[in-house]
Amino acid sequence: MAGLCLKTVTLVFFLSAGSLAAVDQNTLAVDQNTLAANQDTLAGLILAVKDRYLIKGMFSLALSIQSKNQNLEQIFKDNPVNKVTDQLSKGLVYRGKRLAVAKVKKPEHAELRLLTNLSLVSKKGDLLVIYSYASSCSTSCTVINGPYNIIKKINNVIDKGNWSKYAFVFEKVFSPKNKTHIEKCFLRKALKDLGTSRITLANIFRCYVPNKANSSFQCTSCSSDGGVTEACIDYEQECLKECCRIES
Questions:
Q1: What single DSSP character describes residue 105?
Q2: Higher pLDDT pick, 148 / 39
Q3: Is residue 13 one of the residues assigned to a domain?
Q4: Dist. CA 192–CA 29, nearest whole Å
Q5: Is there a contact between 134 and 109 (Cβ–Cβ < 8 Å)?
Q6: Is the pLDDT of residue 36 over 70?
């Protein structure tokens, strides 16, 4: 990813009082002077955080954004890169007040490690963003009664907080180490099952670079016509330069 000059990044999202409606990726506005116009959405937020911490491999993070003019640069200041990377290099989960980050530590996936005992500062009107490098797997992450299920973990986190909106974001379509692809029916089921959490399918997004000429990093809703959006389960949608086999 190309570096972004982040002197001051201000994020604003608009929420009517008491509303738990789906997150609108186009109302997560960012300062036009610090990010390109085509990144002034949820994509801009994810790209800014990724560019700041430059974490390699499989990882997951949670971000608690205030509802009124939250300055992302303040979150970066409160969670310095060296502190985040130091904790991760020791195999630990980094936990700040409004940011938490985890990497894979077998047999646990990054999402599970992140969500276990996750507690972020939140107030009414705030937005919770959970980012995962890859989409949820159908063999463990979303198995309802499985030991590595993240659905209950997500619900526990939301129940303990005061967020008014939530978003789950992933970039790559999950592919285990011993396989190139997983059949779409399993990928679709995993997203549908994840959508049974308090997040709901309407608030699950794939943020990535599509396999189209001159495409930029962008977000696509994984909910369409009551089902799962094809782009969220299609390996061929990814820009070939961005593709890599995901280690599980």
A1: B
A2: 148
A3: no
A4: 28
A5: no
A6: no
